[in-house]
Design a protein that fits this description.
The complex is a heterodimer of chains A (352) and B (366). By secondary structure, chain A is an alpha+beta fold. Chain A is built from 8 helices and 17 strands. In chain A, strands 1, 2, 3, 10, 11, 12, 13, 14, 15, 16 and 17 form an 11-stranded mixed sheet that branches. In chain A, strands 5-4-9-6-7-8 form a 6-stranded antiparallel sheet. In chain A, β16 and β17 form a beta hairpin. Chain B folds into 2 domains: 259 residues, Zn peptidases (Aminopeptidase), CATH 3.40.630.10; 84 residues, Beta Barrel (Elongation Factor Tu (Ef-tu), domain 3). The longest helix of chain B is centred in the C-terminal third of the chain and has 16 residues. Chain B starts with 16 loop residues before the first helix and ends in a 13-residue tail after the last helix. Classes of the chains: A alpha+beta (352), B alpha+beta (366).
Chain lengths: 352, 366
């Protein structure tokens, strides 16, 4: 179990932007190989791991979806040895100037995001935030070397190494949503020593940050009876203190709203109470902003639960998580799955 | 560090592995204006074996003197500032979160989303930002004010961080091909350069090296250092912005680049605080020309160096500045070329070798 921090740090140091997940997928593939019976990669690039339940087929199936893709940038133009970029996923341009990045050209090139001085910007840029289209990436190479090594369309990922803060807090980029992959791995580890009737399909999904492409296609292949989506949720922090955020490091979020089947919510709440795992109801009045938006409407529809790991400063290179909440999420998922009886689906009903 | 006794005055200084290692150590150290301790320790360690006299003055400047051997020696002061821009923690909030203010000229747009190192123990923290999902389009049109930002050190920081502690960007020194990416190249370049020049000081001058404090908050160390050293002339060795980027509108020429990378050391003709003695400018230009050392004239304009204080000390000290061109100074990660640094060292060494009492004889003339 202790190696989950090492695995998490390894995942946080890997690239794997939406649509370009192969570097992170290979790390997860290696981690899940001893924990699953079968592994495969879907057409869109999601990783599917099957851990078979006991008992006679056909068995019920539970899908765990943890998206593995990360936000980042893509090169749009090269001018004077410097690169212009656009976003992959949702980036706040205000946090970009001065960030360390890696340009994935013909080789990995370390660089920095540059905010040009005011006199080289249109007057409208003024003293306010500079739009992404006016920023550059500089990799410290002379123009001829850049022309040789970088092309339009190359991806640009954050390069900040993870930092351990006090109180089991970890900061870095791409914690959204590698922390959930780590929690899913912990769940699979725990299921090694626990009997479970249902087949467990662990999915590291692709393209959540852009198209939800992974979440729309994996359930079609797998046809699960229920799905648990695990993703990060907003933790209370500077500038994020209203009802949409839950406390940091004080338990997992149980998603509550239209993307979530109320009977699954109730079952998770009951399980968390029984195990004395702290949790907070995470209100999602409209769309959840997670893979559940897609999974819920695949084929004839799939009952979904959304588990949240509270995260501070989401979509910045210093996203911060409590390791305690990752462990709690893994434990809660494992307990829920281990206790699924062959007829458990009968209880996932609408109260009429 | 290696034993520097192997120096020899005759050999030319160069930028090799040990010089780069020293620069790395200097850049990774924390020395926010007013708290220059870490860099001062590195400097003292480096100069104690090579200088004839070393003292630390009332403000914390390190003054290191290397005496020449000839009879009529010119007293030449070289100044490089040890301090860097940074932050000071000013108030503790709940949950490991602290309020801070900037020390020195940092654009607050460079702060959100950055890792920082706090205090003498270099405790890691982060300056977070509200998730983009929770911001409005109108909000994203405004920059995030310093007063709305916090440093987060994790919930169990306890008493390990207190108001008054300094913080810097957490960026570690790295070589990128022909370049260096690091924080605080302004002015660790100057500090490392002065150490090399002390090792290779020519005989016909007394080399008075001032590793100064508080440059970024008003050139305060340089003023008292110049008084104490009482030199005949002075050179501030610093880093200056290279704004050699394409303008947003491709139709335009960028004719306000200040300096350019790969063009060599930047010789100052005028800045916000100093109109350098033109005899010294000419001496540097002639040296570069004769020795075929690349150089550039820094475009006259704003900005400044320790020379701004030094040239007005006592009854006036003829002064000039030479800087290594640096992109993105005063941010988490500046980029500069190794070649420009090496040529800055070459130019200064060659110029010092040509100093004679005649250089400053007579009246100041353009």
């Amino acid at each position: 179990m202790t190696d989950f921090i090492a695995l998490l740090k390894k995942m946080l140091s890997a690239s794997g932007l939406s649509g370009f997940e192969d570097p992170i997928r290979e790390i997860i593939h290696e981690a899940w190989t001893p924990l699953t019976d079968e592994l495969s990669v879907s057409k869109i690039g999601s990783l599917h791991g099957l851990k078979m339940g006991r008992g006679e087929a056909p068995r019920r199936r539970v899908l765990i979806s943890a998206h593995m893709d990360a936000i980042g940038m893509m090169v749009t133009a090269i001018e004077g040895g410097l690169m212009r970029v656009t976003e992959i996923g949702g980036l706040d341009h205000r946090i970009l100037p001065g960030q360390l990045v890696t340009v994935h050209g013909r080789e990995a090139l370390p660089g920095v995001v540059v905010q040009p001085p005011a006199h080289l910007l249109p007057e409208s840029a003024g003293e306010g935030p500079v739009e992404m289209k006016y920023l550059f990436v500089d990799v410290g190479l002379r123009p001829a070397a850049v022309a040789e090594k970088v092309r339009i369309g190359d991806t640009v990922s954050y390069a900040q190494e993870p930092l351990e803060l006090t109180g089991e807090a970890l900061a870095g980029h791409s914690l959204d949503n590698r922390v959930s992959v780590a929690a899913t791995t912990l769940c699979l580890q725990e299921l090694q020593t626990r009997m479970h009737d249902w087949d467990v399909w662990a999915v590291a999904s692709a393209q959540e940050e852009e198209t939800l492409g992974g979440a729309l296609t994996s359930p079609f292949d797998i046809r699960p009876d229920i799905a648990i989506v695990i993703d990060v949720c907003f933790a209370k922090s500077t500038g994020s203190n209203d009802w949409s955020s839950i406390p940091f490091g004080e338990g997992v979020g149980l998603g509550y709203g239209p993307n979530i089947h109320p009977a699954l919510y109730a079952a998770f709440e009951e399980k968390a109470k029984a195990l004395e795992i702290p949790y907070h109801r995470d209100l999602m009045p409209k769309m959840s902003g997670t893979d559940a938006m897609a999974i819920q409407v695949v084929a004839e529809g799939i009952p979904c639960m959304v588990l949240g790991i509270p995260l501070r400063y989401m979509h910045t290179p210093v996203e911060t998580v409590s390791l305690k909440d990752i462990r709690r999420a893994g434990r809660l998922m494992a307990a829920f799955i281990a206790d699924l009886t062959p007829d458990a689906l009968d209880k996932i009903q609408w109260e009429e | 560090m290696t034993n520097k006794l192997e120096m020899s005055a005759g050999k030319l200084p160069e930028i090799g592995a040990s010089q780069i290692a020293l620069l790395e150590k200097l850049c990774n150290a924390t020395a926010v204006s007013g708290d220059e301790h870490e860099v001062r320790q590195i400097v003292l360690e480096a100069v104690k074996l090579i200088a004839d006299e070393v003292k630390v003055d009332a403000l914390g400047n390190v003054l290191a003197t290397k005496f020449g051997r000839s009879d009529k020696r010119v007293r030449v002061m070289l100044a490089a500032h040890m301090d860097e821009i940074g932050l000071m923690v000013v108030k503790k909030h709940e949950d490991g979160v602290f309020e801070f203010v900037r020390v020195g000229g940092i654009d607050e747009r460079q702060l959100p989303g950055k890792p920082v190192l706090v205090g003498r123990e270099h405790l890691p923290g982060v300056i977070g930002a509200k998730p983009i999902h929770l911001t409005t389009a109108a909000e994203r049109k405004n920059k995030i004010d310093e007063s709305a930002m916090r440093i987060d050190l994790g919930p169990e920081i306890g008493e390990k961080v207190k108001p008054g502690d300094r913080a810097t960007f957490a960026t570690r020194f790295e070589l990128l091909g022909p370049s260096i990416r690091a924080k605080a190249l302004d002015d660790r370049f100057g500090v490392a350069t002065l150490i090399e020049l002390l090792k290779h000081a020519p005989d016909q001058i007394d080399l008075l090296a001032a590793f100064t404090v508080q440059e970024e908050v008003g050139l305060r160390g340089a003023r008292v250092a110049a008084y104490a050293l009482d030199p005949d002339m002075a050179i501030a060795v610093d880093a200056t912005p290279a704004y050699d980027l394409p303008p947003w509108d491709d139709e335009d020429e960028n004719d306000r680049y200040n300096t350019r990378l790969d063009a060599g050391p930047a010789i100052y003709v005028m800045d916000f605080g100093t109109i350098p003695d033109r005899r010294l400018v000419n001496w540097l230009v002639e040296t570069a020309t004769q020795d075929e050392i690349p150089y550039q004239l820094r475009q006259p304009g704003g900005g400044g160096t320790d020379a701004g204080a030094i040239h007005k000390v006592r009854s006036g000290i003829p002064s000039v500045s030479v800087s290594v061109p640096v992109r993105y100074a005063h941010t988490a990660a500046s980029i500069a070329r190794l070649d420009d640094w090496a040529n800055t060292l070459r130019l200064l060494h060659a110029a010092l070798g040509r100093v004679t009492p005649n250089l400053l004889v007579g009246e100041r003339r353009g």
